[in-house]
Design goal:
Shape of chain B: globular
Number of helices of chain A: 11
Strand content of chain B: 15-25%
Largest sheet of chain A: 5 strands, parallel
CATH superfamily of the largest domain in chain A: Aspartate/ornithine carbamoyltransferase
CATH class of the largest domain in chain A: Alpha Beta
CATH architecture of the largest domain in chain B: Alpha-Beta Barrel
Oligomer: heterodimer
Structural class of chain A: alpha/beta
Helix content of chain A: 25-40%
């Protein structure tokens, strides 16, 4: 088992097994049953080279819930500030007895390289703009819970697709599960080419009526003009998920967002907190889905 | 005396199966050999003999970064690749951007005896693209090729003044690295389907095209000679083709890796596939191959850019750009040219020697010609595993190549002998 580097090329039955495993942990949590300590005596090392709240905390909680020992590496408190290379950091953390490294990095191939160098399973917790596999699994699980099946669902991914590792992860795996994807946004926010099985459009309003799922991406406000927006107000006018747009959707359609959300820009308050929103379900599925991923990476050696 | 028998020799009149006799630093006879008493006799076994290869574009890292390469290791790498002359780029540390630095670099280059090294000088002080360097003092020292390679001169007005000035100096040449960095900064690979999939910031082809178009317009306006380095896009080949047709004095080069590879090979992000310009789309690769065959692109130049294994053992986006190329250039070029011997020696020797003004190189193998020669077997397969270069950052390590340099002769002396490896 080589951990989880990418969902690209993973067959549907394997994706289904991971989702089934995630669902079992969801059911245990809902029933108040303690999960078996399948990772007792194992060390999960969380290596985040980039700020994150929900992903890091949910991996920590998932590892604890399976009985693992957890080490957290934060570069701002480490030898990275003394110039230690990424490679040496990976070798050091491996030598300290890590059984799995959970890696978040701003560079696209960081997890791949760690796998090459380390020898222990690597879980990609978000790499560059390329992929965020566990978020994609969480969202697939959330949709399966809500709709029962994924085959034939139509999802529109709205906004800053080009800068989104979540969007690229979805593009890598959701079509395998039968979900049809449409990328929606201005040219400045869509990838320069479309090597995926996906449609693209610049008009959210024209796409809305066909969608079962509207997946909103965060506007990267910190990027300012470089983000390719003429203004935040204009973005909200053309791509914001407003009450008015909500009324254009099919009655069965839902709203998703990987967070953190910018209320009033890509999503209105009432929509984010409304009954069509699956945002909190996504968050709730984070820990059990990551338990399943940790177990798959480590549990088989028991 | 050296005698090479049974060789396909590139003569002034065409290719001929013959023996070549070398005495001192000259070719003394081409044809049949009556007696070879006391000579070193080499049976070429039907391999090619032609003028030693000439590389318009190498980075030998001296001064300043000699852990990657120095003049000695660079010269050994050149000889192993069949080269008898190279042009070193001025982006050393410090850069070659003044008369005294040019004098020093040329003096040091003159101490290397296995390859002729022509030193290029920077167009602007510190290669900063702001202030004109002392072109005249470098010209007096012997510099003929001027370039800020690694960057283009971003300010069109400044480049126009530079080209006007150099247009007055006989034999002087402006070589530009065509890249509009306002479009390409932060980019790591060609902007296209592959960069989209990896989520990497790309270098769009248009960033090259706009500088090629601008520079051609300035060359037309000033009448100065312009050489465009490492063309990589279909549009830039078209622009050069059109400029030539209207009489602009522009020449161009392409690297062997742009002939051999495109961005489809970046399925895995290998730092040894990272260079600027980046590996482009398959259609761009086809266009540079066609341009080279037609002579729209005059020369193959390696952009030999050594970096150590440790420097490349980092994530792709952090890896330094550039690959070595001297020792694999002949094989890759021969394949791209479908094994045409005459075109091979034109693009790798005669044309670059003419562009650089190197009188002792690139000449047909005839009695009286300087004994700068290469013996190349176009059919031999081999696998590069180790390099004479101090660095090994080649995308072709471990890959089977067709076409091998068997021997290089520089100034009448054997500078490389490869055997049948």
């Amino acid at each position: 088992m080589s951990g989880l580097l990418t969902l690209r090329g993973m067959p549907a039955d394997r994706l289904g097994d991971l989702l089934d495993s995630g669902q079992r942990y969801v059911d245990m949590i809902r029933a108040g049953v303690r999960a078996p300590s399948r990772l007792e005596g194992r060390t999960v090392t969380i290596v985040f080279f980039e700020p994150s709240t929900r992903t890091r905390l949910s991996f920590e909680k998932a590892a604890h819930a399976l009985g693992a020992t957890v080490m957290v590496f934060a570069p701002e408190m480490s030898s990275t500030v003394k110039g230690e290379s990424f490679k040496d950091t990976i070798l050091t953390l491996t030598a300290m007895g890590s059984d799995v490294l959970v890696i978040r990095h701003v560079l696209a191939d960081a997890a791949d390289l760690a796998a090459l160098w380390s020898g222990v399973p690597i879980i990609n917790a978000g790499a560059g703009r390329r992929e965020h596999p566990t978020q994609t699994l969480i969202d697939a699980l959330t949709l399966r819970q809500h709709f029962g099946a994924l085959q034939g669902l139509r999802m529109g991914i709205v906004g800053d697709v080009d800068n989104s590792r979540v969007a690229r992860g979805h593009l890598a795996a959701l079509p395998t599960l039968g979900i049809e994807l449409t990328l929606i946004g201005p040219s400045t926010l869509l990838p320069v080419a479309n090597p995926w099985v996906a449609r693209t459009t610049h008009s959210l309003d024209e796409a809305l009526g066909d969608l079962d799922v509207v997946y909103l991406l965060r506007v990267q406000r910190e990027r300012g003009a470089a983000a390719g927006l003429s203004s935040e107000a204009s973005y909200n006018r053309r791509y914001g998920m407003t009450e008015e747009r909500l009324s254009m959707l099919k009655p069965t359609s839902v709203i998703m967002h990987a967070g953190p959300i910018n209320r009033g820009i890509e999503i209105d308050d009432s929509v984010a907190d409304g009954e069509r929103s699956l945002i909190l379900e996504q968050v709730a599925n984070g820990v059990p889905m990551r338990m399943a991923v940790l177990e798959a990476a480590l549990g088989e050696r028991e | 005396m050296i005698v090479i028998e049974n060789a396909l020799v590139l003569r002034a009149t065409g290719v001929e199966l013959a023996a070549v006799v070398i005495e001192g630093d000259r070719v003394t006879s081409v044809g049949s050999v009556a007696s070879a008493n006391g000579a070193t006799v080499i049976d070429a076994g039907g391999a090619w003999v032609g003028p030693g290869l000439v590389d318009l574009h190498v980075h030998f890292r001296e001064p300043g970064q000699t852990w990657k390469e120095d003049l000695g290791s660079g010269a050994r790498s050149a000889a192993a690749g069949g080269f008898t002359a190279v042009v070193t780029m001025p982006n050393t540390d410090p850069p070659i951007d003044s008369g005294p630095r040019a004098v020093e670099a040329i003096t040091r280059a003159g101490l290397v005896d296995s390859v002729d090294i022509a030193v290029a000088g920077a167009l602007t002080k510190g290669r900063a693209g702001v202030e004109i360097s002392d072109l005249d003092a470098m010209y007096e020292a012997g510099v003929r090729i001027f370039t800020d390679d690694g960057d283009s001169v971003p300010d069109g007005g400044l480049l126009r003044r530079i080209m006007s000035y150099l247009g007055d100096l006989p034999g002087a040449l402006v070589a530009e690295h065509p890249e509009d960095c306002s479009m390409t900064m932060n980019g790591h690979m060609h902007e296209g389907a592959m960069s989209a999939r990896h989520g990497l910031v790309g270098l769009p082809g248009v960033g090259e095209d706009v500088i090629v178009a601008r520079d051609i317009a300035i060359a037309r306006d000033t009448g100065a000679r312009l050489h465009l380095q490492h063309l990589s896009t279909a549009s830039s080949v078209d622009l050069v083709r059109q400029a030539r047709a209207t009489g602009v004095a522009v020449t161009a080069e392409v690297t062997p890796h742009h002939l051999a590879l495109d961005d489809a090979s970046l399925e895995r992000l290998d730092p040894n596939l990272k260079m600027y310009p980046p590996l482009r789309a398959p259609a761009d690769r086809a266009a540079v191959i066609t341009g080279l065959r037609q002579g729209v692109i005059d020369a193959v130049a390696t952009d030999h850019a050594p970096h150590t294994a440790a420097e490349k053992a980092v994530p792709f986006e952090q890896a330094p750009r550039g690959v070595i190329g001297l020792e694999t250039a002949a094989a890759l070029t021969c394949v791209a040219l479908n094994g045409d011997q005459a075109v091979f020696f034109d693009r790798l020797s005669t044309a670059p020697a003419r562009i650089a003004g190197l009188a002792r190189h690139g000449m047909a193998v005839e009695p009286g010609a300087p004994a700068n020669l290469v013996l190349f077997d176009p059919g031999q397969t081999w696998v590069p595993r180790a390099f004479a270069s101090r660095s090994a950052n080649s995308p072709f390590t471990g890959k089977e190549l067709v076409g091998k340099v068997l021997m290089t002769i520089h100034d009448g002396r054997i500078s490389y002998e490869g055997g049948q490896g």
